[in-house]
Amino acid sequence: xxxxxxxxxxxxxxxxxxxxxxxxxxxxxxxxxxxxxxxxxxxxxxxxxxxxxxxxxxxxxxxxxxxxxxxxxxxxxxxxxxxxx
Length: 85
Hints:
This protein is mostly helical. Helix content is 20%, strand content 5%. It contains two helices and two strands. A two-stranded parallel sheet has the order 1-2. The longest helix has 13 residues, at 8-20.
């Protein structure tokens, strides 16, 4: 589980690092609070990240940004996506 003590920037770095290491299938994001998190960071890194098949089931994405992400086959079942772009 992603620790609630981590701030938004550190959560993003953790998820990006685990994804790049091909460990996101083992990452439990169930009920994770990713509110106000800009998962896509193309503006700062110039990288379009491929999060195909990531499981974002039941997580809170309130006011988060998913811009510049490839999300083919991602699972958003019951995710809270109010004000998410």
